[in-house]
Design brief:
By secondary structure, the chain is of the alpha+beta class. 14% of the residues lie in helices and 22% in strands. The protein has one domain: Immunoglobulin-like.
């Protein structure tokens, strides 16, 4: 087929299609939404008291050293608390116990200021909730009288930190 014949064929098809009615179009709207849920997360944290000398006869303090990280969505009002017993157990079969207290500062640790929820008590998170992970310092205190006469060895506890929002 020569080029003129091909061109006439294509033009003929185009002209014949111009008489075909165009399809109709209808429009509508679609609603799209997303809900961001309120949420908080709490990282695993560590608090390690320095080695205790039974002869020192002084209170021992420690803190979370930035390891306790809490994240809450914006516009929440997080409250921090723990209902875990504040007792280190050890050595061996865990028959020895050393009580300790927790607070937001070493001073508030003296009064065990991190509440064990009683009638809704809790401390306000020391940050503005904005969805980012933030370090929350907690301080621990072991009073000298509470470790006097204890057997040497490792004493441990597992504390659950709760965040209500």
């Amino acid at each position: 087929m020569n080029n003129k014949l091909k061109l006439l064929t294509v033009l003929g098809i185009a002209v014949s299609m111009s008489n075909v009615p165009m399809a109709q179009t209808a429009s509508g709207t679609m609603t799209v939404s997303a809900t961001v849920s309120e949420a908080c997360s709490v990282s695993a944290a560590t608090m390690t008291f320095p080695a205790i000398s039974l002869f020192a006869n002084t209170d021992v303090v420690a803190d979370t050293a930035g390891s306790l990280l809490i994240s809450c969505t914006a516009a929440t009002s997080p409250l921090i608390w723990s209902d875990s017993p504040r007792v280190l157990t050890g050595p061996g079969a865990g028959i020895e116990e050393i009580p300790f207290s927790l607070g937001q500062t070493s001073v508030t640790a003296l009064t065990n200021a991190l509440p064990v929820i009683v009638a809704g008590e809790a401390i306000a998170a020391p940050f503005v909730a904005d969805g980012t992970e933030q370090a929350v310092p907690l301080h621990g205190l072991i009073k000298a009288a509470d470790y006097a006469g204890k057997a040497p060895g490792l004493y441990t506890a597992s504390i659950t930190i709760n965040v209500s929002y």
